[in-house]
Amino acid sequence: MPATARHILVDTEDLCLKLKTEIEAGADFADVARRESSCPSRQQGGDLGTFNPGQMVPEFDHAVFTGEVNKLLGPVQTQFGYHLIEVTRRWEEAAAEASPAENALDRALAALHQDVNDPKAQSAFYGTFLNTTFCVPTLDSKELDGEEAGAEERVLPLVLEADGTRYLIVFSSEARLTEWAGRSVDWAPVPGHVLATTAMPPLHIAMNVGTEYSKQFNPEEIAWLREVVKRSRQTESGEEQTN
């Protein structure tokens, strides 16, 4: 059952509660998101578009898919901070089966494909990518290295090589990962901004392999995204110091 939601992300619970009181007193959610949220989605007033269960971190996912629609939810604590969430629409399972499981990232990529030189389409896609939590298939290092039981276990992301190029495999939903693998596999949730800051050259990123929403990110593209994340964090740090 996909849902459409918007959120505001801040560092402290106190600030989250303060903003909740402000919105409940009549402040516009989108205006507060643009002013206060540390998430790239603040440029869209906190709008995350449409996504399916399993695409977001567990605490956020639980709030969106169990919380009341059109009600201010939170504070919800995740590894990123404290969220205020408003679920603006949620489809029932039957409706989800009747329509394609397209999400905000899919729509942003489709818009980018229409005109790859459109600055607005570029900003919308890359911003959504950095804000999306991906399913990264994982491997047990002991199985790869033939280590004996009792050795330290390390969980490694799946990296495949083709024509001398190494690709980090990521999917925007568990359903797409399972369909690609042909079975249920272990995976870890990793935000797009973490992928951008940890995928070092010469590694490429292959997103949604085998689907119409696939895209490859080359090292130069990833380096640019890494710089975007760095500048965003520096801006947020500067804003905190002036407050």
From TrEMBL:
Which InterPro entries does the record cross-reference, listed alphabetically?
PPIase_dom_sf (IPR046357), PPIase_PpiC (IPR000297), PPIase_PpiC_CS (IPR023058), PpiC/parvulin_rotamase (IPR052204), SseB_N (IPR009839)
Q: Which GO terms describe its cellular component?
A: cytoplasm
Q: Cellular location of this protein?
A: Cytoplasm
Q: Which Gene3D superfamilies match?
A: 3.10.50.40
Entry GO MF terms: peptidyl-prolyl cis-trans isomerase activity
- Among its keywords, does the record have Cytoplasm? yes
The PpiC domain, residue ranges = 1-89
**Is tRNA-binding one of the keywords?**
no
Signal sequence annotation: none
**Where on the tree of life does the source sit, at the highest rank?**
Bacteria
Key words of the record: Cytoplasm, Isomerase, Rotamase
What role does this protein play?
PPIases accelerate the folding of proteins. It prefers amino acid residues with hydrophobic side chains like leucine and phenylalanine in the P1 position of the peptides substrates.
- Family, similarity comment: Belongs to the PpiC/parvulin rotamase family.
Name of the protein in its database record: Peptidyl-prolyl cis-trans isomerase C
